[in-house]
Amino acid sequence: MTATSGTAAESGRTAWRNWAGNVRATPARVVTPASVGELQEAVRRAAAEGLRVKAVGTGHSFTAAAATDGVLIRPQALSGILSVDRAAGTVTVAAGTALKDLNRALAAQGLSLTNMGDIMEQTVSGATSTGTHGTGRDSASIAAQIRGLELVTADGRLLVCSEKENPEVFAAARLGIGALGVVTSITFAVEPLFLLTAREEPMRFDRVTAEFDQHVAENEHFEFYWFPHTGNCNTKRNNRSQGPAAPPGAVSGWIEDELLSNGLFQAVNSLGRAVPAAIPSIARIASRALSARTYTDIPYKVFTSPRRVRFVEMEYALPRERAVEALRELKAMVDRSGLRISFPVEVRTAPADDIPLSTASGRETAYIAVHMYRGTPYQDYFTAAERIFTAHGGRPHWGKVHTRDAEYLAAAYPRFGEFTALRDRLDPDRVFGNDYLRRVLGD
Q1: Cβ neighbourhood burial of 2 (10 Å; 0-12, 13-18, 19+)
Q2: Secondary structure (3-state) at 314
Q3: What was the pLDDT predicted at 3?
Q4: pLDDT at 262 > cutoff 60
Q5: Measuring CA to CA, which residue among 169, 168, 174 is closest to residue 188?
Q6: Residues 4, 78: contact at Cβ < 8 Å?
Q7: How far apart are CA 180 and CA 195, in angstroms?
Q8: Residues 6 or more apart in contact with residue 172 via CB below 8 angstroms
Q9: Residue 113 in contact with residue 100, Cβ under 8 Å?
Q10: C-alpha span between 257 and 248 (Å, rounded)
Q11: CA of residue 210 relative to chain centroid, distance
C-alpha cells in the first residue's frame, strides 16, 4: 500500500450518521483531502470562516465525538503504509488506513501489532483517538503501541510528535478524542509475525468470576462473555504458540463466526426486539450454542471477528480489583429487573499505561461492556449499569455511550488538567470542538 495524492474532494451539506445509527449530523461541507497539504488548507480555511472541524473514520464510535455542523474531514484518501523500519521495529501509516488493511499488509511483510481490539473496520486514527483496546495481561491498547504521530493543529501547522520531539503533545495526542488536532500519520511499534492459540470454552458465571484473577494471571489475553438471564459464560484465552498454525476448519469456522455469531444472532435479536418476553428463553439457548474449540493462527485472525449485527454499546473501565464485584452487582440488577437483554456482556483487561486520557491510565484495568441490539430501547439498562460502574470508580470509553461530564472525568483522571491545558494551548478557539467535547472536557 502507498499513500495517495491528488486533489481534495469537497461536497456541500449532506447527512452523516455513525455505524450504529444513533448519532447523526449535517456538516456544512465534507472534505476528503488527498494530501496532508490539502488537509492543512482545509483546516485553515474552516478556521478563517469560523467553522469547526472534525475528522471522522468509519463511524464505529457510539458517541458524537466526530459530529459537527462545520467541516467534516474524511481522511480515507490518506491511506497506506508510508515506511517500515525493521531495525527500530516500527511502521508508519497514513491516518485514514483501515486496521484490516494495515493488518493484512503487515502480515504480508512478516510483521504484526502486539495486540488488537475485536474488530478491525476502524481507521487507525479513529481507533487510537477513542481508546480502542483488546484484552491483555501485559500488552495494552492500540494507542499505547504508538511511537510517533503527525498532527495538524488549529492554525494549520503540522506537528511531528514523539518522545523526543514535542513530547508533551505526543504524550496526550496518542488518545486525543479529536480535541488537539487532526492526526495525519501514526508510527506503531510492531514485531515479527507470531502465532496465537485461542482456547474458547463455556464456563459458569460463578466459576469464571471466582477464578477471574487466576485466568488473567495465567493467560496473555483473557476475556469472557456473560449471557444475561443465564448463569452461562463463554471464555477465550489467547496465548503465544510455537505452532504449527491450525486455523478453524472452513465449515466449523463458518458455523461459529458466521452462522452463530452473525446470521443466527441477527435473527434471534430481531425476534427478541419483536417479542421481548422471549429473550430469556433465547438467551438460555444461545448461551449453550457455542461449544469449546481450540485453534492457532496469526494474531489479527485470532484477536478479531466479523461483527455484522448492529448494536449500541456502553463500556466502563474499572480498577481491576473492583470488576468482579461490579459484574456480580450487574447480574443481580438484571435478575431482579424487568429488563430483557439479548446481547452478552463482555469483560476484558488491560495493564496500566501512561497516556493521560487512556481509560487504563495509571491503573490495572478491567473493562465491562454492555450492549443492546440496534433499535431496542437501551436507556434503562445503560442507566442502571452506569450507576454501578461509576460507584466503582469507572471511566467511560470515549467512543461509547455514557452520560459523564468534565466534572466527573476530572476527578476520574489524575492527568485530566494536563490534557485540557495542552488543548487550551493548541486550540484556544476550539476549532476542533463540538458539543460532545464541551461536555466531557469542559469549555
Answers
A1: exposed
A2: strand
A3: 45
A4: no
A5: 174
A6: yes
A7: 37
A8: 180, 355, 356, 357, 418, 419, 422
A9: no
A10: 10
A11: 27
